[in-house]
Structures are given as C-alpha cells and as structure tokens.
Task: structure prediction
Amino acid sequence: MKDSVKEKSIAQDSRLLLEKARADGVETVWDRFAAQLPNCGYCEMGLSCRICVMGPCRIDPFGEGPQRGVCGADADIIVARNLGRMIAAGAASHSDHGRDLVETLAEVAEGRAEGYGIADEAKLRSFAGEYGIDTNDKDALAVAAELAEALQEDYGTRKKALTLLARAPEKRREIWKKLGIAPRGIDRETSEMMHRTHMGVDNDWQSILLHAMRNALSDGWGGSLIASEVSDILCGTPTPTPTTANAGVLKKDQVNIVVHGHNPVVSEMILLACQSPEMIALAREKGADGINLAGVCCTGNELQMRHGIPMAGNHLSTELVLTTGAVEMMIVDYQCIMPSLGQVAACYHTKMISTSDKARFPGMEHREFHPDNARKIAGELVREAVENFSRRGEVYLPVAPVTATTGFSVEAVVQALGGTPEPLLDAIKKGAIRGAAGVVGCNNPRIKQDHGHVTLMRRLIENDILVVDTGCAAVASAKAGFKTAEAAAMAGDGLKAVCQALKIPPVLHMGSCVDNVRILTLASALANALGTDISDLPIAGAAPEWYSEKAAAIGLYFVASGVYTVLGPMPPITGSANVARLLTQGLNDAVGATFAVEPDPEKAALLIRRHIEDKRRNLGLDAKAV
Ligand code: SF4
Ligand code: MSK
Result:
C-alpha cells in the first residue's frame, strides 16, 4: 500500500490522506483514473469525432481502416477541429469568469453590491485610462461604471481589435496583424471557433489552427487579463504576504471552511463573514477556538495572494482534504471542481455548497451568490459551518503546514526590484539570472502529483533561472518549500545572490489560472524595455501536469505571444503528423515560438535551459552550453 501511494504523489500529506481515504473506503481520482485504463487510443490521438450524428467517426492511425469520417473529414481536419474546440472551451471558461467580475464591478458602481468596493483605486484609474476613459474630476464609482461598460464592449463584436492588445510589444502586434490573428472580440472568437468547427465550415486544418491562436489570444489579452485586473481593482492588487500550505493548514481546534474554484467574488465575502466578531464568538460558544478559512485550487490562490489565507492543496488534493474529517464546510464556485466531491463529503460531516448559477454538483446544496446578496448568504453559510462543528467526528491531520510568501503581482515584483524592472534586466544581462520561466497549470493523475512541477522548478532555480508560477503549480512549489526567502539557498549562485539581496524567494507566486496574464504583462514590460519582442527574451513557459481545456488555451496564448512552452502530458494531436509538426516546429516561423512535449521534468528542464541559452546568444549576451 505504501509503495502504491508513493507512486501517486510526492506530497506527504497526499500520500497519508490517500491511505486514509482507502481505509475509509473513499474512492478518489486515482481509483477512477485506473478504472479508465487503457484509454481509448483514437481519443488520445485526437482521431475520434462526434461533432455530428452522421458519426461518431474515427480514423484508423495504422492506415488499414477508415481514413475519412462520414462527411469526408480526414485526420488533419478532425485533430485540428478537436483542438480548436478545446481552446474555445478554455478561452470561454476564463473569459466568462472575467465577465462575472465585470458585472460585479458594474454593480459596485451602481451601489448594489454590499460588501464589495474599489480596493485599488489607482489601478481602477490607470486601467480606465487604457480604455481611453477620462478619469479627471470623476469619483471612483463613476469611473468604475464607465470602465465596466467599456470592458463589456471588449466581449462583443463591435470592435476591430481588443483594447488590451496595446500592452503587447509593437513587433508582436505586427506579427498578429500579418497573420490575421489579432483578436477582435472575446466572445466573438470563441463563437467563431464553434462555427468554424461545425460540419462543413472550415476544413483547412491550418486555417482552423490559426483561428485557435486568435481564440487563445482573446483569452490571454482579453478575458483572462480583464479577470485578473478587475479582481485586483475589486479585491486588491497582491503584495508579498506570508502564508502556509498543505493539508496541515486545517486546524483541529477551529471551525474549518474551505473555498474551492476560481472566482474571488464568492470567497471574498466568505472571508469577510469569517472575520466577523459575531461569528468568531459563535464559534467559541460551540467549543471551537475560532474560524479557519483555507483554500484549494485557484480560489485558494486568489485569497492566498491577497490576504495570506492558507492553501490546503491543489487539484488532486481536493478530495483528500475532505478525508481529514476536519472540514465543516466546502464552498465552491466553478471550474476544476470534481463532481465526486459531494460523494466524498458524504462519508464525513462536511457540508458541500455550490454558489454559481452555472455550476451545480451532485451531493451539494445550492446557495446562489450574486453581488447583491453575497454578503448576506456568506454570513448565513459561515453560521451553518460553525453550527456543523459539533457534528465533527475523528480528525486526521498528519502533517504540519509549510510556510511560504505569496502575492508577487507585476506591481509587487517591480516594487521588490526598487520601482523599475531595470535590476532584473541587469541581472539577466550580466548572466547572474540566465532567464525566467513561468511554470503553470494543474495536476493530472497521469503524472505523480507535484513531481513534474517540483522537479522542473528545482532544476531551473539550481541553474539560475528565476521561476514565476501560478495555479496548482504554485501550490506544489509552496508545499515543497520553494516560496520562502531561505529557499534561495537551493538556487544557483547568481540567482541566490539576487534573491538574497532583494529578500525574495527564487519561485515567485503570481496567482491563479487567469493570472498567467501577469506573466505576459511582465514579459511585455521586459521586451518593451529592451526594445524587442517577447519571442526574443530568454524566457519560457511550462505546464508539467496540465489537464484542462483552460490550460490548453493558456499554452496556446503563451506560444502565440512568443513564449516557448513545454507541456508535460501530450495533447490529443498525435493522430495528425501535420498538426503535431506545426505546433512543435512550424509555429516558430509564424510566431517565433513553439510547443514542446516532454513528460519527464528532468528533460523538460534541459529543453528550457537550452532555449534560454539560445535566446541569450541571439541577444548577444553570454551563453552557456547545456
Ligand atoms: Fe463524422 Fe464528420 Fe460528423 Fe465528425 S463531423 S462525426 S467526422 S461525419
Ligand atoms: S485550478 S485549471 S487544476 S491550475 Fe486553476 Fe489548478 Fe489547472 Fe484548475
């Protein structure tokens, strides 16, 4: 048994809780993954199509069976269409999340969102300035109203190009223009992808993939960017904050409430309710020593980087934290929430609550949050969680939490550098820092939990590559202890000296999934400062354990923005040599970057190091042989 849990995760909390889950008879994601093996080979290669009901169809990769679907689509068309739809779903998810924040901003402006407010007025005004809004002599709420209106315009079809493309370096915008992939409207590109991939519309695999890039860019320079910026405006721009991570953040003697999902609109109100003296007094009355709010996945990241709220785990830990028996209530919003959670919770006393009108789950009670009732519902839920404390049975918290510093927004990074990106550029030019890598994305039971993230990050920092991370990758590195100033000792001499001088960790937490755009914003600032393009910089991206359509969209907007990106798990594209070749080689000529796929993080680290040294050489900086 011990060996088998070691194969599933490198995290000690997960290993021990997985044993507990087994002892309790709780089925987990790993059990269901094993039950699905072997996976369908056609689907793995992207060669099955169920777009219409003349099918479903499949293409025989060995050339002996059918080579065309009923409609006549060949392997290239089917693989490209499937990938296109994957990107559309990912872009839609981030962008719809962004829309919810824009609607909250509009309700704040109208005074209909009790509890919410403008937390970062300076960002509100500067962001409004990017939309051409005159903010002089206007109060914050008037600016918010105009900004919300302007942001909604970016979702529609009435513009020729998204406003925030202006943040990208000029050379990058020229590339997009030349290729005809500058996104016009956020919803428009997703809608057009669904149209193009309907039977009998776009049947040129290259044209579908070009539009997939435009669709992904509408996420990275549109929906996700809006989500990230408006979250900062409403909830505060993150600054370095001490915090803790792993399942040990749950407290034996306190009421534990865990928030899960992505959108901070719900969790911010839960936090306020948890801090209320009335609720804390009630918890004491019920025999608890207070209320402990913790997060998982990206809602956890949102709270952690702004308020230091502890992080109980990443994607593959979301079932396991419930097996501690210590969680009075889990409150979810949307995305990456396994439909199994209600069933797991039913084995313990945990109450499960869904909150979004668009995300319901079996075994959960639905209590719908909207900006105008969120404060009230949050209070009711926290009260119910406190009352549930008395139903708690035996608790198993087998590990102590790890400390971390989180909250490195672009603004915080620049501040840590003394107010300008120059010191970072100087360190890169001198070679103390060879370059930077964004390590992002999920967990996936195909890969030992956190092994991909932690191994890759360790190798990168050892070789003087500064790491910025987001999402579940960021949780993995926090659990591994990479997010402390002391972790600089693990870095190579050059990076270590810079981190020690600035008192920063070698792995900087930039936030949640939608916050990958912070990495783009930082890369653009560096490229603009050097008068060059993002694709010329000694930087790279990696998603060592990705699983979701959102991660696919992120990967593609990274590449389309000029960032070489190494994926761990293989996307379903191997059924088309043409599509695979274009994504891993051909895109270099078009956008100056490609994907690589390398499930072994040791080899992925070598790929990234080589890429970074090549870019240094091209910039005329010193370069090492790797
Ligand atoms: Fe088959 Fe073509 Fe329909 Fe796909 S779109 S299911 S390949 S007939
Ligand atoms: S939560 S998309 S598993 S990072 Fe953003 Fe984690 Fe991936 Fe979801």
About this structure: The first helix runs from residue 2 to 8. The domain at 78-235 is CATH 1.20.1270.30 (Substrate Binding Domain Of Dnak; Chain:A; Domain 2). The chain has a mean pLDDT of 97.
